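@channel anyone free to eyeball this complex?
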Amino acid sequence: MSIVDLTSMGESQAELRKEINDRLSRLQEDVSDYCYQCAKCTSGCEAHKLLELEPHKIVALLKRGLIDEMVNSDIIWTCMSCFKCRERCPQKIAPVEILFALKNMAVASGKQIPGKYSTILQSVLSMGLIQDIQEVTMRDTKTKKRGDLDLPALSKPSDPAKFQAGLMKIAVEKL
Amino acid sequence: MKRKFALYPGCIMSTEQYAYEISIRETLPLLDIELVDIDGFSCCGEPLKSVNQLMMLYLSARNLALAEKNKLDMFAPCAICHLALSECRYVLGSNPEMKGRINGMLAAEDLTYNGTGEIVHTVDLLHDRIGIEEIAKHVKKPLKDIKLATHYGCHAIRPKEIGRPVDSEHPMKMEAILSALGAETAEYPEKLDCCGGLLQINLDESALAKAGQKLKAVHEHGFDGLVDVCPWCHKMFDARQTKAGETVAAKLDLPVFYLTQLLGLAFGVKKEKLGLEFNLSPVDKIQIG
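replying in thread with the prediction:
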């Protein structure tokens, strides 16, 4: 199974998009009722100074229903998932969760997934973990990997076919 | 009384950040914690929440179901894993429909998620379950004359709504533990700042800049070292410290430790048994024991 299965399944992706749309609609109702643009989220945002993410503007754009514009923008991928905005919002709005939904929508809409997300996804689909055992360099510049150490075997799905069958349902159950 | 937990290793600790796993396996049994290894765990799903939130819920539910099958509570030393598992329990606990759906999918592996098990992280396991008094009893070589900064990791402290191991704005449990080990700690303005870890996936330079900014601040405040409890954070601050320093035009040489490594040193465990040779930051600068 490859990433293609998850991002190019026409009909099921339409269902997935509908589901994420419903999620975004619920979030939109929340922000419309409660956000008064105090920008506390942006004042604490870890990605603000460095990458110009402005969570209060994400919320404002969602309020106006400008979802496609955000889904098509790289800015949604600058969030560091630090959860400060969600923690500190006086109105219990969670810009970070809006950003997760927007990123999910970008993926479901077949946009190119940035950086190593596709590598990670491929790895989880094939072996259950985001990466296999790494050989690491120590302070004395020697290298070692898990097998060289007195550690138990790596825990990972013992039956990859069955594991994939479960994960596949996320695609085939039209989620 | 011996307490048993399934050790949920997560991806980064078990495939790369060996020092955390080595020091956990060495120190916790000294505090009467029995760690049980379960075969078959997968990724917690948190790094994929940006791709597909449902996949995160599914993967976390799958891991929790495996621990439940073995009738064990779960110990997740990675802050990121701990949040994914906790969020899964939070969401499925309040959404029976989603729980049913996830269980429908888990049937492919003959697993069922009930939500009966508990999830602990390194900090609450040490501070709340074992307790400061008990930890203090085991100290043989106090960490004298060192001043340490703590870094809890975003996922360990937020969002409070889901239930986190420590307070979101004023976490002090590591300080209490380190104080029991004999070390000095102090507050600093950047304490709650992010390491940038998850941004390594798609904006690596910015991730390094985040880590560099925090390391530089910790250094400038005059701390002798930084202590963390998450393999993602530790990778940023320790393994990638030199690169992180380059992004903020600083030559950094700040020792960075896992809390469990310091715990072991204070308990008199030999350095070689705590994976200290894996720390790439200059931990030898600090003479302990």
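from a first look: The two ends of chain B are 29 Å apart (CA to CA).
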